[in-house]
């Protein structure tokens, strides 16, 4: 694992970059915080004329976009350069309409990192499934996103 100060710097830089990423600005997505250890990210999606659908609620695509890249980015940073990390599949279950700002909190724990390292140690791919809830300001569940990632040691790391 990297030096905690380097990781914290990368977390700050990543948050800054994402908050100035034009598609996120246009969609009304704001990364509220990234923990210094890159294990927790909080995201907000406001509701404005630019992301409101015909019936006045959040576009489903905007709800998905607000959580799309984060698990992959977090794992890339936490596992390091010896690993290939890709998004493989995703699904979203719309529970109730998003009628105002919505929030998501994504987390990576020690157990997930240990599972990934264990399953990929021999060079095999591993497909962890992760879930994130999107909630409104009152805490009501708006949508649930299931993500499947592809993780594998790079060939040069398998031979080392």
UniProtKB/TrEMBL annotation:
Q: Which GO terms describe its molecular function?
A: translation elongation factor activity
Write the record's keywords in alphabetical order, separated by commas.
Elongation factor, Protein biosynthesis
Question: What residue ranges carry the coiled-coil annotation?
Answer: none
Which Gene3D superfamilies does this entry report, sorted A to Z? Answer: Hotdog Thioesterase
By what name is this protein known? DUF4442 domain-containing protein
Q: What is the species listed in this Swiss-Prot or TrEMBL entry?
A: Pseudomonas alkylphenolica
Q: What is the lineage of its organism?
A: Bacteria, Pseudomonadati, Pseudomonadota, Gammaproteobacteria, Pseudomonadales
